[in-house]
Design a protein that fits this description.
The structure is a single chain. By secondary structure, this protein is of the alpha/beta class. The protein has one domain: Metal-dependent hydrolases (TIM Barrel), CATH 3.20.20.140. It is 41% helix and 16% strand. It has helices at 21-30, 43-55, 71-74, 80-92, 125-143, 155-165, 182-190, 207-215, 245-256, 260-275; strands at residues 5-10, 33-40, 59-63, 100-109, 147-152, 173-175, 194-197, 221-223. An eight-stranded parallel beta sheet has the order 1-2-3-4-5-6-7-8. Strand 5 (147-152), helix 6 and strand 6 (173-175) form a beta-alpha-beta unit. The longest helix has 19 residues, at 125-143.
Length: 280
């Protein structure tokens, strides 16, 4: 019996799907998906992300500037505030789209940058990432939209920022592709955030996340593909697609020792409530 699942993080507008995007989406719904959240993570993908959501039923859009896009601020280092205003204005121009259900993926990423590297005027790439994140956080709060967080090797820095905004009643967020210990997960849960898991939890190296999943209540979880990346075992090495979230749900059920139907029902309801899909 097909599982009623929602893929809360896909990149269907990436070139890996340019030849068969429609078939991939159709295949996803044929196996029982109830929805797909498509993420446009830079300016080049805003329009295409929204166009895909407009073209296919039960496909929704989230747009925002990935932390890697902070390099565009470096290029405008003499006046980064003006560039931020331009980007925020561009995102605002799409807020009237009914299919737009969130801002993201936004956040911090220290994996590819050297912590001590200085770019100009005593500012590092991390400083620019923080500026970009805060501007988009404020936009999401103003627009009453949830945020989809990307964070890699920067949970302490991210939590410090989010806690400054935690008194905002309409701030809601999900940490996509969560990797970490339960004590980190608990800090996100304490400020009302969800945690999303993908095919990485089927990999042997993901012991920390597996231990965290055992402790995290299903009420705080969502599932995702992050396609075309992170294909779950037994499909690792192949192109990932939304239909593969079935493997993620089954792995969570196995880790927690609960029926997979329970995982599907709760994570799907979480996604519907979080993105307000019942109002679209």
């Amino acid at each position: 019996m097909p599982l009623n699942l929602i893929d809360t993080h896909a990149h269907l507008d990436f070139e890996e799907f340019s030849d068969d995007r429609g078939e991939v989406i159709a295949r996803s719904f044929k196996v029982g998906l109830a929805g797909i959240i498509n993420i446009g993570c830079d300016e080049d993908h805003f329009k295409s992300t929204l166009e895909i959501a407009s073209a296919y039923d039960k496909v929704y859009a989230v747009i925002g500037m990935h932390p890697h896009e902070a390099v565009t601020l470096v290029q405008h280092k003499d006046n980064p505030e003006a560039e931020i205003k331009r980007v925020i204005k561009r995102i605002k121009s799409f807020l009237s789209y009914k299919q737009l259900v969130g801002i993201g993926e936004i956040g911090l990423d220290l994996y590819r940058i050297a912590r001590g590297e200085r770019i100009a005027s005593q500012m590092s790439i991390l400083d620019y990432q923080k500026i970009l994140l805060k501007a988009q956080l404020e936009l999401a709060i103003e627009a009453d939209l949830p945020i989809v967080i990307h964070c890699r090797d920067a949970y302490p820095e991210l939590l410090a920022i989010l806690k400054d905004y935690s008194n905002k009643v309409n701030l809601r967020g999900v940490v996509h592709s969560f990797e970490g210990y339960y004590d980190v997960a608990e800090q996100f849960i304490d400020i009302g955030f969800k945690l999303s898991f993908n095919g990485m939890i089927t990999y042997e190296r993901s012991r920390d996340s597996i231990m965290a999943i055992k402790e995290i209540p299903l009420e705080h979880m969502m599932i995702e593909s992050d396609c075309p990346y992170l294909s779950p075992v037994p499909l690792r090495g192949q192109r990932n697609e939304p239909a593969c979230v079935e493997y993620v749900a089954k792995r969570i059920a196995e880790i927690k020792g609960v029926p997979v139907d329970s995982v599907a029902a709760q994570t799907t309801q979480n996604a519907i409530s979080f993105f307000k899909l019942d109002k679209n």
